[in-house]
Every structure is written in C-alpha cells, then in structure tokens.
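User: Second chain of the day. Same drill as before.
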Amino acid sequence: MKKYFFFDIDGTLTTPLTADYPDSTREAIRRLQKAGHFVSLATGRIQADAWQVACDLGITAAVSDGGNAVTIDGKILYDEGLALEDCFAMLSAIDCEKHPWALAIRNEKYRITTTNRYLEKVKDRYYKTEVDPAFDFHTASVIHKIFIACSKQEEAEIPLGPLPHVWFRADTMLIEPIHKEHGIKELQRRFAIPDEDIVVFGDGMNDCTMFRPEWFSIAMGNAKPQLKEKAKYITSRADEDGIYEACRRFGWI
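Assistant: Same format as last time:
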C-alpha cells in the first residue's frame, strides 16, 4: 500500500546537534522511494532553502515555509508570505530600539534590517544580513519571516497580534507560518490521498499542526514533550537511526 511521507528537516531528518543527515536517514528515504512511496519535506525553511535540501536527499516534493509554499519536481505550486497588514502593524508598534528586527523579503537565506543593533544582539549568521538604515518596511511586497531580537522573558513586549511565532534561538523570536498541514492538505487534494495513507515525522512545536488525529504521526526521540503527547508512535533520534527503524518497524521498507 502506497504511503505519503512528510518529513520535517531540522531535528528530524538531521541530527539535533550537528545538522548532518545520517546515512541511515538517507538510506531510509532511498528505500521508501524505491518501494513506491511518495516522500516530501514538511519544513519551516524558506522555499529555496528547503528545495536545496530536497535535491541533496533526492526528494521530489517539499512543503516549505511552514506550509506557505509547495514545490513538486522543481515547480513551485505556490509561495506566499505572511499577511502584510499584520506585519506592518506589528513593525509599526514594536519598540525597535530595544527589539531590533530583520525581515526575510526574498526567497533566499537573506534578511534586511535598518540597524547594526540587530547584529549586535543576535548571534546567528544562518541568513545573510544586510543593514540598510534607509529601508522602509512598508515597501516590502512580501515578508516570509521576521526575526526579532528578544528573549522569552520579553515575549509579552512584542505586539504580535495574530502573527504566529516560534523561537529560532534563545535570543531570537521568529515570526513565520506554522501551518504545515495546509501544504500537506494541498497535496492531499491534488493527489486524492486518503487520510490513512499520510505519515508525518517531526520533533518541534511547529510540527504540532500536522500531527493530526487522522494522519499517522511519528515523533523523534528528541521531540518536544507536547509533540510526543500528540504522536501515535515515538521513534529514536535521527542520529540513533530513528527514521530508518520506524520505517522498518511498520514495514514500509
């Protein structure tokens, strides 16, 4: 029976500490596809970043940007940003002196900020960061993500409104889409996939919405406790062959 697999990337396909893809994970993906199953990513990463991972792993589909983008065989079916009005309202109200921000406004690992204070307060360099004091966020035609220099203790100081968020790092609030199930449902509709044939793997809080009761959900050993509570099965960490062992256990490979 053909199954449709949707894998989170970070902490699921990768090892939590090194961000490597274990050989057993690569082998599981290869065997799943050889057995005739459909394999897709389901990640919060921006579309171009996610598709690079998909190509590296030999995967032909990706739900990315937290469900706001879907790609099949290199063709982008859609790639949407956050609600601009909500973003503009939040950026207008935030204390940007205390909480400088950076915006991901392109389909690449790039963000723009108006002040060097952002780079002084936030230590990650995963995205290339441009500092342009003249940048006006109102000119953005799309905003994929908003990075805010903020600690969890300061969360109440951020006027989020309806915008969803996760924690990118201890010093960075990340406003991004967190409805991966939307992208999965789009593929489910296109391919007429029965609920019982959908399998999702994840580890983080941004995976919660795709851990639906009608789909078969597998949490990694390193998953957040709240996600494990929603899972129908808990496997080992990726670096302990968790992906491979789960697929073997249920006879998918």
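The chain has a mean pLDDT of 96.

User: Great, on to the next one.
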